[in-house]
TrEMBL record:
Residues 6-105 form the LOB domain. PANTHER family: LOB DOMAIN-CONTAINING PROTEIN 32-RELATED, LOB DOMAIN-CONTAINING PROTEIN 4-RELATED. This is LOB domain-containing protein 36. Belongs to the LOB domain-containing protein family. Residues 156-177 are annotated as: Disordered. Residues 162-177 have a biased composition (Polar residues). It comes from the Eukaryota.
């Protein structure tokens, strides 16, 4: 087969002629790094995998292999699983934080419920007491009784002993006159 003017990354890396039917060429173009994938999987394994999947999925496979290879070289023990472990850790951290916030919300809700119950009890007390209107009515009644008493005292002045305690209270002071 005739060689292309610019070999793909795989052929360039392997120092092979890049043919028109090169399995790597569409997925590992000249500008894309191939060395990571080659180091981790080997060229023949990559070629085998590319041939095993349908053409429309080959780009995803190449991207996935490149990512996996890079992660494997960064973390030889865990590879991509290292990221999974880290994400699991973060998930745990955020789950605990979420649970803490949920407990806080429940505590606040309990406080609000308690205050509502206190308000209900106070309303009950006020209802039994008659409420502000009843207090006003009682004060008005008390004022009316006081007025009547004063009027009776005026009418009886000089005839009978005053019936108002206020006058009685004044009596001891009259001795000084
Ligand atoms: Zn090639």
């Amino acid at each position: 087969m005739p060689s292309l003017t610019s070999p793909c990354a795989a052929c360039k890396f392997r120092q092979r002629n890049c043919t028109q039917g090169c399995v790597f060429a569409p997925y590992f173009p000249a500008e894309q790094r191939f060395s990571n994938v080659f180091h981790v999987y080997g060229a023949s394994a990559v070629a085998k995998m590319l041939n095993e999947v349908s053409p429309e999925r080959r780009k995803d496979l190449a991207d996935s292999l490149a990512y996996h290879a890079e992660m494997r070289l960064i973390d030889p023990v865990n590879g991509c699983f290292g990221e999974v472990l880290e994400l699991r850790l973060w998930k745990e951290v955020y789950t605990l934080e979420l649970q803490r916030r949920e407990r806080e919300i429940l505590e606040r809700q309990a406080e609000i419920d308690q205050k509502r119950r206190i308000v209900e009890v106070l309303k009950g007390v006020l209802a039994t007491y008659g409420g502000p209107a009843a207090v006003d009515a009682a004060l008005n009644r008390a004022a009316a009784v006081a007025d009547d008493a004063a009027a009776i005292a005026d009418d009886d002045a000089g005839v009978n002993e005053p019936t108002i305690t206020a006058s009685d209270a004044d009596e001891p002071t009259t001795t000084s006159r």
